[in-house]
Specification:
By secondary structure, the chain is α/β, with parallel strands linked by helices. It folds into 2 domains: 131 residues, Aspartate Aminotransferase, domain 1 (Alpha-Beta Complex), CATH 3.90.1150.10; 252 residues, Type I PLP-dependent aspartate aminotransferase-like (Major domain) (Aspartate Aminotransferase, domain 2, 3-Layer(aba) Sandwich), CATH 3.40.640. The strands form 3 sheets. Strands 2-8-7-6-5-3-4 form a 7-stranded mixed sheet, sandwiched between helices. Helix 1 packs antiparallel against helix 8 and helix 3 runs parallel beside helix 4. The longest helix is centred in the N-terminal third of the chain and has 21 residues. The two termini are 39 Å apart.
Length: 391
């Protein structure tokens, strides 16, 4: 299952990308590329029909996974960042107000900043508490008559806390404001039901817990949500029309799709289902997370951030080791202990400003579907050895 490059490596950077990928994902992507990697929907020959059928099945699988209602509103792009750009620019490039949080990744913060600077939009970023959670009432108070969108990180890529999306969704539904969640950290790991959670848009990426290749992701868009075009181009259908198509999925898809990536992503969804589904994946990963959490909490000299309990969180932990700059600690973990992790600001600067770890950031360990207990215990042992050096 593990690639040769991973031999002996304790890979604890799954919040960045899951590694390795299931063998079935690799085989499916390569097989599709070798046998049917032609443009879907552009022609009527047999291979084009086969490619279109694969694309349709992938839309259906992901719509079902997210609790969506219409596979035609499952649109593919590069990743969650790409999808979030489509949503934020599409809804705010004519101005208006957006509500988001200080937990967000730059995939949300930067598009919002551009809309504020370039298009006169206004933004309210609600805080999170000392445990790492947003208060839904803060979202309620932030919504204004001109609010066009609420966008919330489903789970933080820095501190791992899963936000109360259902409660936020109820508020947004009551106020008739669309809710978009950034599910980069949760898609494939934490159950998502758009209807039950009252979520209007899910932005997802394929290369994390969905176990697909890099360079594939997109949006699952609920009914009655209209996102304006911020791009235009070929769709392969209705080519005589001067402007880009309004109907989904073409409304938010542009040019030839990443068919090899989509094939691999669909296989990743199959792999999750074969393992018992998303809830089973989450249960397994959180059982390992308990070992990591207890090990880090019990290590003298380690400061663990926003991890008072394992409730409502993902297996992502940020910490610092007394006497070590995070970058130095990460280098030592790599070189001396063969432990791969992420250090720095993790593309979420406002989280670090809030928890007091800016500008150096933290060390981050994050578990994934192929993390073993041995990997976790090796990470804890390495941290303990470093901590002991500076005591």
């Amino acid at each position: 299952m593990h690639a040769d490059a991973a031999k002996g490596l304790h890979y604890l950077d799954n919040a960045a990308t899951t590694f390795p990928k299931p063998e079935s994902v690799l085989q499916t992507a390569v097989k599709f590329c070798a046998s049917a990697c032609v443009n879907p929907g552009r022609s009527t020959f047999d291979l084009a029909i086969e490619a279109e059928d694969m694309l349709r099945q992938a839309r259906t699988k992901l719509t079902r996974l997210f609790g969506g209602t219409d596979p035609n509103r499952l649109v593919f792009g590069y990743n969650a960042t790409d999808g979030l750009n489509l949503v934020i620019f599409g809804m705010l490039r004519r101005g208006g107000h957006v509500v988001s949080t200080r937990l967000e990744h730059n995939s949300v913060l930067r598009p919002i900043a551009h809309c504020v600077d370039d298009f006169g939009a206004q933004a309210t970023l609600v805080p999170f508490d000392g445990h790492g959670y947003v208060d839904p009432d803060d979202v309620r108070r932030a919504i204004r008559p001109d609010t066009k969108l609420v966008v919330v990180d489903h789970a933080s890529n820095v501190i791992g806390t899963v936000q109360p999306v259902r409660e936020i969704g109820a508020i947004c539904r009551e106020r008739e404001v669309p809710l978009c969640i950034d599910a980069a950290q949760t898609g494939g790991m934490v159950p998502i039901d758009m209807q039950a959670m009252m979520v209007d848009i899910v932005a997802f990426t394929g290369h994390k817990s969905l176990l697909g290749p890099m360079g594939i992701g997109g949006l699952c868009v609920g009914p009655d949500i209209e996102i304006e075009h911020s791009r235009a181009g070929g769709t392969g259908v209705n080519s005589a029309r001067r402007r880009h198509l309004e109907e989904y999925p073409y409304r938010l898809e542009f040019g030839t799709p990443n068919m090899m990536g989509i094939a691999g992503l669909a296989s990743g969804v199959d792999f999750i289902e074969q393992r018992g589904g998303v809830a089973a994946v989450y249960e397994r990963e959180m059982a390992l997370a308990r070992i990591l959490w207890e090990g880090l909490r019990e290590t003298d000299g380690v400061t663990l951030y926003c991890a008072d309990s394992l409730a409502a969180r993902t297996p992502v932990f940020s910490f610092n080791i007394a006497g070590f700059d995070p970058a130095e600690a990460g280098a030592r973990l790599d070189v001396d202990f063969n432990v791969a992790c992420r250090t720095g600001l993790q593309c979420a600067p406002l989280v670090h400003e809030t928890i007091g770890t800016s500008p150096a950031g933290t060390v981050r360990f994050s578990l994934g579907p192929f993390t073993t207990e041995a990997d976790v215990r090796a990470g804890v042992a390495a941290v303990r050895e470093l901590a002991a050096e500076r005591r």
